[in-house]
Design brief:
Layout lengths: L4 H27 L3 H12 L16 H15 L5 E4 L2 E4 L7 E5 L7 E5 L4 E7 L4 E4 L1 H9 L1 H4 L3 H18 L5 E3 L11 E2 L7 H13 L3 E5 L2 E5 L4 E9 L5 E9 L6 H7 L1 H9 L1 H4 L11
Parallel strand pairs: 6-7
Antiparallel strand pairs: 1-2, 3-4, 4-5, 5-6, 8-12, 9-10, 10-11, 11-12
Helix pairs in contact: 1-2, 2-3, 6-8, 8-9
Length: 293
């Protein structure tokens, strides 16, 4: 059917209105310097559908592109260095042997995983629509225990963990829900084991491996304390639940409040080996409803 001049004008006007509105959102995105405002603009971009009838668009406005751009700009607004984006691939200066991309999370249309491409590990979940940032304990432990991870210096990992914490803190300005898990370096952070009632043979292995490697391990009323150096101690303790089961947890304590459990796993191989060899018992609880295997 041929369009009349009036109908053609209406179609063109509708198409241009859509594109002008989208262009305005894009301009606001790149001009914004406030985290809550930037996140809101991104929500609007992600929820905008362009359905032109007379104008063919030849640019890619896929959600992955905008989530990648958002993450990079939030990183800059948090005044953090060392992140580079090329063709939607993210590299962190401290982890030069790793490359990351955002991929849609299958269980939630609005969420994305930041995936390490070579190891195929989803290290975090980022959702600007529902305002959530969660870290994957299992993937982070595997990342630092991989061959490339073992080549990352403790100083570089410490910087990376610090920057991730600062990035998460910046998102609190927009009331994000956070789960830092293995990268949380607050001394009062308790990392609970996913299962209850750790077998005594597993705790015995910890005692033996610490002693064998020349570290002092002290018995507490509710668990163990390993003095890793003059400033850092790792606690592995239990609390008795109302059900009568014992719930074990890890806690890292240091004088400067700078050490996370992830850094301990990387810096002290005897702990990492004990943890990985007994992972079915010791795995840190994380949001397995988010990070589906």
């Amino acid at each position: 059917m041929l369009l009349s001049n009036n109908n053609l004008n209406q179609v063109l006007s509708s198409d241009l209105k859509q594109l002008n509105g989208y262009a305005d959102l894009v301009n606001r995105f790149f001009e914004s310097e406030k985290i809550p405002e930037l996140n809101q603009i991104t929500r609007e971009i992600l929820q905008t559908k362009i359905n032109t009838r007379s104008v063919v668009i030849n640019f890619d406005n896929s959600p992955v592109i905008w989530v990648t751009q958002l993450f990079a700009k939030l990183w800059l607004l948090a005044k953090l260095p060392g992140l580079n984006v090329v063709n939607n691939r993210i590299r962190f200066q401290q982890l030069e042997n790793f490359e990351f991309t955002f991929v849609p999370a299958n269980m939630n249309k609005s969420g994305f995983y930041l995936r390490e491409n070579n190891q195929v590990l989803n290290i975090l979940y980022f959702d600007v629509i529902t305002q959530r940032l969660f870290f994957n304990a299992d993937a982070l432990a595997k990342l630092v225990n991989s061959n490339p991870g073992k080549r990352v210096s403790s100083d570089r990992l410490a910087d990376f963990v610090k920057h991730l914490n600062q990035f998460a803190d910046a998102l609190l300005e927009d009331e994000f829900a956070l789960d830092l898990n293995l990268i949380d370096y607050e001394n009062d952070q308790k990392l609970f084991v996913d299962k209850v009632d750790v077998p005594v043979e597993v705790t015995d292995k910890l005692f033996l491996t610490a002693t064998k490697n020349g570290f002092f391990i002290g018995a507490l009323d509710d668990g163990f304390q390993i003095s890793l150096d003059e400033n850092i101690s790792l606690f592995f303790q239990q609390q008795i639940e109302a059900s009568g089961h014992s719930q074990w947890y890890f806690r890292v304590v240091d004088k400067k409040n700078e050490w996370s459990f992830l850094q301990v796993l990387q810096k002290f191989p005897f702990i990492s080996n004990w943890y990985s060899q007994n992972i079915s018992t010791l795995e840190i609880a994380y949001r397995d409803e988010i990070f589906l295997n």
